[in-house]
Structures are given as C-alpha cells and as structure tokens.
C-alpha cells in the first residue's frame, strides 16, 4: 500500500456519496487557496469478506473486477464533483481495506483529512458515520467533516485554475 505523506496535501475520503462529493469540492477549494495537493482516496473491501472460510464463494465479481469498479467509483465521483477537466490536479488513490484504516494511513503526515457528512442527524446534531467517528478518534492530523449543502450541486471553478494544477510536486 502506498501512503501519501508529503505533509502539504489535503486528503479526502471519497465513496461516491453526495457527502463525499461535498467534501471533495470543499477540499479542492482549500487546496487551491493553500496551493497544495489534493488527494482523493477510495477504500474498498472484497465482497467475500465476512463469509466463513468453508462457505462456498459467492457468485459475484472477482477481486480484480471489484478493484476496477472501485477505481471507476473514484473517477466518476471526482468527475461529477469537480468537472471533467481536473486532469492531474487530483491524485487519485484506490486502496483495498477497511475505509477508516485506509484513510488514516493515507492521511498520515498530510495537512488535513476531509470527510463528508450528512447535514444533520438526530436532534439537529451533526451526523458523522462510523468511518468518520473512527477517523476523528484516531487521526494524527486535523479532520474536517463537511456537510452536504445546497451549494454542493455547483462545480468548483477553482479546480481548473493553474495554481492547483501546478501545485503537484510528485
């Protein structure tokens, strides 16, 4: 597994959901303002996880197909959230493993970790899911949870700016 540990990057967890797209948009804006790298991370686990070792293998996609599907989820989400012209402005990383563990490893040494969340949960309190809670508990970098808002439907114009595209140092 490759860890992105430059210390000048913003790492964002991407799972294809609207909250993760909101986090990706926010992180892209921050990366532009701070002239730093944007790293989009998608964690995936094989569908066979959780089955007893003696159980017959499920008739589903192969691990290779699941890996390809995970890469496609990340590519589509980045394209939907930031527009088709992101080019090399966003480093995309797909890693097999539990999402919280993968995000914590990828964010080690980064400037911050951005995660999406629903606008409000029960009783009007912020809604942070299990992956977000685990990241908040164990992160070694600041963690920002970005709520979904009405603005989340807009594209980020800044992602196409030369400052973000030229900020890549790797």
Proportion of β residues? 15-25%
Helix content: 25-40%
Radius of gyration: 16 Å
* Amino- and carboxy-terminal Cα gap: 17 Å
Total count of helical runs of at least 4 residues? 5
Largest sheet: 5 strands, parallel
Return the average pLDDT rounded to an integer.
82
Pick out the low-confidence regions. 1-5, 151-163, 165-170
Order of helices and strands: EHEHEHEHEH
Shape: globular
Q: Work out the number of β strands.
A: 5
Adjacency order of strands in the biggest sheet: 3-2-1-4-5
Supply the helix-strand structural class: alpha/beta
What does this structure look like?
With 170 residues, the chain is of the alpha/beta class. The protein is built from 5 helices and 5 strands; from the N terminus they run E-H-E-H-E-H-E-H-E-H. Strand 1 (9-13), helix 1 and strand 2 (37-44) form a beta-alpha-beta unit. The radius of gyration is 16 Å and the shape is globular. Mean pLDDT is 82; it is low at 1-5, 151-163 and 165-170.
